[in-house]
Amino acid sequence: MTSIKFGWSELGGDPARLSRVSTVVRADALPARLPVRELARSCVGVCALAGAELAARRAGLSRVPGVRVDDGAVAAAFTSERQLLVDGRTPVVFAPLSGFWRTADGWVRTHANYPHHRERLLKALGGLPEDPAAVGAALAERSAREVEDAVYAAGGLAVALRTPEEWAAHEQAAAVAARPLIERGRLDGTRARALPPLPGGAPLLPAAGLRVLDLTRVLAGPVATRTLALLGADVLRVDAPHLPELPDLHADTGFGKRSAQLDLTTDRAAFEELLAAADVVVTGYRPGALDRFGLSPEALAERRPGLVVAQVSAWGAYGPWGGRRGFDSLVQAATGIAALEGSAERPGALPAQALDHGTGHLLAAAVLRALTEQSYDGGSRSVRVALARTAAWLTEGAVAAAEETDGETADGTWLTETDSPLGRLRYARPAVSFEGGPGDWARPPGPWGTDPAGWA
Questions:
Q1: Residues 201-226 pLDDT 10s
Q2: Given the residues 356, 377, 411, 451, the one annotated as active site
Q3: 3-state SS, one letter per residue, for the chain
Q4: Which is the most buried residue in 82, 197, 205, 403, by most CB within 10 A?
Q5: Per-residue pLDDT tens for 148-172?
């Protein structure tokens, strides 16, 4: 079973649709010991196929448009945050206190890109100054598991480097392995969704007219909603005023969207007004963090029947780590990926934040398939993915090479430029592509949190 077949099966897709997918294999794309290129290709492929399927449904086409997955485009998209230039400036991907550090018995990976996470890391280490040398000296005196526990207790982010065997023995690994790659559920018996037909002419925008409330941060969730925006959705990202996004990260993932600020503790009426007209809600906070605001899938569907609720997390919403925060780099370290990609001298990393980008494309695909299914038999829907589950797919040997290629080997151009309110941007073109579909986003990103908290 090839990867795209497995991914499409996990989405509940018709196997006959797979004949519409062709691939352009480029052996130099995303080089790694693990089959990262195949994982990335599969995630983009199922996402594009889900979009093409919904487009055919809404446009009344007798045949699903053909999908073309080019490894070169996929590699550029999966490294989009590294490809971005803002007025010629290269963004900083990781802060000085984010990375691998030697401990008394091994290695630990920290994540301190955000100020509040950086403060908690320093607090857990005894109130150290923001000095890499001081942090390195303190970590060298402790065991990796001790650091992991202490930083987590302080609300920060650090994980001990584990081998694949050590991760396999962990309770969280067992909990993750017991779940499907994409969790899909029906929340009620709401009648079938009546999707209006797509207007004539190109491009085919399968999500046109749909409103997506984007409650995500960092990378995986924003990649999913950026993809839905590409396909025509009106995506409104909403953030709490006290949790600003990193500007360069917002610039990379903000294409096609609008961005507003809303405090759920004081602006509930405004949020409920948004929810009342939303078709999809996507959340990317740690599991349970938004439940106190009535944002669990069940609570949302009760107030807005017919909704699709999509959730992404680092470790999954189950097991002993179900409530923990996490990022791609930390999941790589914990699950044995960093050990596999490294050497005897130092841990390594994948050539892209492939868990984030791959999981984001899977989440977008799950939303698109849920919308297609709703058009036949209704029901509010819940879909859920986790970086750790995508990591298991990558490491368990289920990711296989493509069986077929259309034979193309010519180089393509996968970067382009545009003017924006943020300056002149160089960015990666979208990798999701099908016949008649969009080739780029309809609008560039604007400044974080400056749009009205209302639908277009």
A1: 779 999 999 999 999 999 999 999 99
A2: 356
A3: CCHHHHHHHHCCCCHHHHHHEEEECCCCCCCCCCCHHHHHHHHHHHHHHHHHHHHHHHHCCCCCCCEEEEHHHHHHHHCHHHHCEECCECCCCCCCCCEEEECCCCEEEECCCCHHHHHHHHHHCCCCCCCHHHHHHHHHCCCHHHHHHHHHHCCCCEEECCCHHHHHCCHHHHHHHCCCCCEEEECCCCCCCCCCCCCCCCCCCCCCCCEEEEECCCCHHHHHHHHHHHCCCEEEEEECCCCCCCHHHHHHHCCCEEEEECCCCCCHHHHHHHHHCCCEEEECCCCCCCHHHCCCHHHHHHHCCCCEEEEEECCCCCCCCCCCCCCHHHHHHHCCHHHHHCCCCCCCCCCCCHHHHHHHHHHHHHHHHHHHHHHHHCCCEEEEEEHHHHHHHHHCCCCCCCCCCCCCCCCCCCEEEEEECCEEEEEECCCCCECCCCCCCCCCCCCCCCCCCCCC
A4: 205
A5: 999 999 999 999 999 999 999 999 9
